[in-house]
Amino acid sequence: MAYAQPHPRLSVLSNTSQSSVDHLSPTASSTRFSLPSVPAVASNKPGAPRPNIYDRNLNKTRVSEVSASAFAFLFSEVVQYTQKRVSGINDLERRLNTLGYRIGTRVLELMVWRSESSSKTPKREIRFLPALMSIHTQVWKAVFGKPADAIEKSVENADEYMIIDNDPPIERHISVPRDMSQLSCSSFTAGIVEAVMDGLGFPARVTAHNTPTAQFPSRTTILIKLEKSVLDREEVLKQ
């Protein structure tokens, strides 16, 4: 079931201005965003060994970039391939979410490894809001090269939080047919967020919904619905 609009009453927890985005992410205004790059061939000489991707230093490749157009083409092919094998919009979004979940587990593993290898006292967040802020900033920068635009909390439902992306990079070159206007290809991103949430110990159901505005026609809301166990633990930690 599509989620046409966010809750009418929301409290803004974080709203990244354009100036702060440029400050946090040098690539925010470019047409490139961060993704693991394909290693170049060491030599053009016949018989020269190709470098093994597993031998690369993960810390030295943390700012590697690939062409955004190349990623857009690859993601478009994934969507088209998946679309031919589903029975409807809900099934397509579910499969994109599953693909994103697989990526999210690897993103979290890589970020934790880098944190532990670069700090003598690595920190693990045990409170939900700091963890959500790290997803809004660090995970988005690791995957898309820029932080998300805002975090909102539902005033009516204590277990619902939202991450707002005004211009999702994966949506820029996706043309959705009019009869599938409810489809949100950002279900892939929702899967990434859900995997990170689960891995950090904050199980939740994460879905993506189109919430366009006149200024941002591709605006997307990533809806996070926490499990009751997370809210119960937060109440204990407040005491």
From TrEMBL:
Q: Which GO terms describe its biological process?
A: endoplasmic reticulum to Golgi vesicle-mediated transport
Q: Does the keyword Transport apply?
A: yes
User: What domain of life does the UniProt record list for this protein's source?
Assistant: Eukaryota
A GO CC term assigned to this protein in UniProt: TRAPPIII protein complex
Q: Which UniProt keywords apply?
A: Endoplasmic reticulum, ER-Golgi transport, Golgi apparatus, Transport
Name the major location: endoplasmic reticulum
Is ATP-binding one of the keywords UniProt gives this record? Answer: no
- The signal peptide annotation in the UniProt record is none
Residue ranges for the region (Disordered) are 1-31
- Residue ranges annotated as compositionally biased, kind Polar residues, are 12-31
Query: Per its UniProt record, what InterPro entries does this chain match?
Result: NO_sig/Golgi_transp_ligand-bd, TRAPP-I_su5, TRAPP_component
Q: Where in the cell is it found?
A: Endoplasmic reticulum; Golgi apparatus, cis-Golgi network
Q: What do we know about how this protein assembles, alone or with others? A: Part of the multisubunit TRAPP (transport protein particle) complex.
Record-stated family: Belongs to the TRAPP small subunits family. BET3 subfamily.
The name of this protein is: Trafficking protein particle complex subunit
Origin species, per record, is: Hypsizygus marmoreus
State which gene encodes it: trs31
